[in-house]
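Comment thread on ticket #2218

A.B. wrote:
> Attaching the input chain for the structure job we discussed in standup.
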Amino acid sequence: VDAISRLVPGVLHNDVSAEFESFQDNLLEYPQYSRPEIWHGKQVPEVLLSGHHANVEKWRREQSVIRTARLRPDLLEKADLSESERETAEREREKAERETAEREKTERERETAERDSGTGEEDSEKG
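C.D. wrote:
> Ran it. Output below, let me know if you need it in another format.
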């Protein structure tokens, strides 16, 4: 119901709000920030504090491309991207794949170490 009602004129009190939802132009939404400028140790990007609307929009678009490449690369096939954005998306997708592989490797190593150390302790306790 919410998804449909948001498209009814006047419901959002701002027609532009419906244009920029979490899934727009086959891209995921850019990260959201608010005040204060530092929250739980995380700094609001300087460009967002600058007040320069063109730079803010450029940053938002770039972040949408990056987020989509990392979280939903399948969506990029239908996205209308510039050559530069396609390069950014490919770099981010590859980076995400490397990070995932590294996390999986670390997890396997940890599980192996726990299993190996746990097996030795269980055997000595039983004896």
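A.B. wrote:
> Thanks. Noting for the ticket: Residues 13 and 100 are 41 Å apart (CA to CA).
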